[in-house]
Amino acid sequence: MKKYLIFVLLSLIFTVFTARAQDVVHHQRGEDLQQYLLDSVKFVSPEFQAGVITFSDGGFSRAPVNISTIEQRVYFISPEGQYQVLADEDQVRRVSIKGRTFIKSKYGYVEILQTDGDVSLGAVYRTSFFETEKKGAYGMASQTTSVTTIGTIQANGTMYTLGVDQSTPFKYKVIPYLYKDGKVYISNKKNFQKCFPDKKAFLEEYLTGHTVDFENLDDVRALYNALR
Q1: How many helices (H) and strands (E) does the chain have?
Q2: pLDDT range class, residue 38, cuts 50, 70, 90
Q3: DSSP state, 51?
Q4: Interatomic CA distance for residues 156 and 9, integer angstroms
């Protein structure tokens, strides 16, 4: 009876999450789940492209590059044709990939999508797996174990070991941010007021007439364009 209840509980948990996410299916416990994801999901670009990495000391490096949506780290293709993680990650200031600009921040790599010369609209692309994602706003997941090796899940304070032929839900998010004066801001009402100090009255009027989900890029883009 106890095993049956655990099975029902796990089935219910996965049903809830797969309603909002996709699954990595038929994998072994402890496997690296990145191998099952498309490059268009685990990287910001579906393929490695010519890029420029600019460092905080003003130096730069050129290589075919991409940015991991799982680790929020820069990858490049070595002369031997292998994917490698950039060693000087803590020194990166921004990355340009074939006309796209990504600003490094504590929230991840923010792509600048639109700009009016003063305030820019940006987004972080983030892929996270069910077991390691601690619920929080704006993709700020607290990771206490590897994001790619899933062996257990926790439900209602109890830890359950998963089987060897299993499905693990993951979520791909596009999370909006604001960028002004070299600083990245979480998308919320307070920071819109800070970034558009002369538009506070209009902002209040807009929010009265529109429902805005500040974690939804389409909603935030519409608000941003209305304030420009």
Answers
A1: 5, 13
A2: low
A3: E
A4: 10
At 209-227, the pLDDT tens digits run 999 999 999 999 999 999 9
Q: What's the one-letter identity of residue 64?
A: P
Give the burial string for 121-156 (b: 16+ CB within 10 Å, else e).
Answer: bbbbbbbbbbbbbeeeebbebeeeeebbebbebeee
- Environment class of residue 70 by beta-carbon count within 10 Å: exposed (0-12), middle (13-18) or buried (19+)? buried
CA separation (Å) from 89 to 35, 140, 172?
Answer: 22, 19, 23
* Three-state DSSP class for residue 14: helix
Q: Do residues 127 and 170 touch, judged by C-beta distance below 8 A?
A: yes
d(CA 22, CA 33): 13
Mean pLDDT of 102-126: 96
| DSSP one-letter code for 139 | G
178 CB burial (10 A radius; 0-12, 13-18, 19+): buried
Q: For residue 31, give the nearest of 142, 151, 135 by alpha carbon.
A: 151
Taking alpha carbons only, the member of 161, 164, 165 closest to residue 26 is 165
Residue ranges covered by each domain of the chain? 2-186, 187-228
Which amino acid does the sequence have at 158?
T
Beta pairing class for 60-67 and 183-186: unpaired
